[in-house]
Amino acid sequence: MTSNNAWKARGDKVFIQTYNRFPAAMVKGSGCRLWDADGKEYLDFLSGIAVCALGHSHPVVTEAVCRQAGSLMHVSNLFYTAPQIELAELLIANSFADRVFMANSGAEANEAAIKLARIHSGAGRFEIISLAGSFHGRTLATVAATGQPKFHEGFEPLPQGFVHAEFGDPAALEGLIKDQTCAILCEPLQGESGVRPLEASYLRAIRNLCDKHDLLLIFDEVQTGMGRTGTLFAYEQLGVTPDIMTVAKALGNGLPIGAMLTTDKIAASLAVGTHASTFGGNPVAAAAAVATMKLILEGDFLNTVQKRGKYLAGKLEEVAGRFPDFATGVRGRGLLLGLILTEKGIGLGAAIVTRLFEQGVLINFAGNRVLRFIPPLVVSREEVDLMIGALIDVLDNINLEESS
Ligand SMILES: Cc1ncc(COP(=O)(O)O)c(C=O)c1O
Question: What pTM was computed for the model?
């Protein structure tokens, strides 16, 4: 069998080097476990970056994918398909929305939201305010919406019509509103820049500004949606309803699919021919998403996510208490949690992730400031304990002097 090293050597010859990959070629996944080409087992607290909510290769999703692939793999959006309709019905029945546009990814769902906000708001109103530290994708418009200069560098000139407000300050945000403003775009919890939750009061203030100035409120729930924070969508627990919402990542539990949701009134602005996607809502991806959503909505699933999130947060608090040189506390919601690092800890963040990887535990270092824990939502207490044991072992043995 081809080894990790052999795959790495072949991969490094052929790929444009945009990713800083771990030196492992993954060949198999089941639940919260992954196996690489050398047969090494990993406990996965990254889940494809908040994608495999039901764990890897969930049998019900796999069965739905195989069944759909066996009957119809693709047809143009010039036709209806049952999985896409069923998925849209599920999304609508379980959210504020009346209508859905299907995309393939988070960035594409956000592109659709940006276009909708502009066309709905009419001529001269095109500017979108997003927040410092936000992440909205890697296409040019979503990079421009992203409030982190490091993602802009080298790609200028960026598309016009995006400004960034200081995080957590409604007055600063209001100061940016002009005649040309059409929407405010934000994540209810900033995942990529270091697991930073937006307080409910801050989100309510943003909602009020939108109402006062006749702006659309767009929630990017690409990372927070599909049960990740303990409710199907994060907005449900914050008492603030958006006008437009985007989801992707866990929607298909590993198959690429995204969606933009909105109300009847706003949706009416996107007329025939104004937006489209060849693969958006592809029947196989949509079948995976229907199976995934049904399982997330079933019985006690979301209550268990909340309980498991509290358990993991409690364990991470204990780690922070035990290693005050490395960590100061925990933040996040549900099973989207970050261990906040001290300055010294930040210098060691990448090394901690590497050591854990060597021990067979996968996490990542988000925004160069927190260790992020985003396991499959089906993670057990025993798996949390195993990960915590490995983390304590790494922190016990890492030398603070290594801090860069
Ligand atoms: C909040 C948020 N929006 C958008 C995206 C982009 O999604 P995709 O990589 O599927 O385009 C991400 C990806 O990390 C995200 O976290």
Answer: 0.98
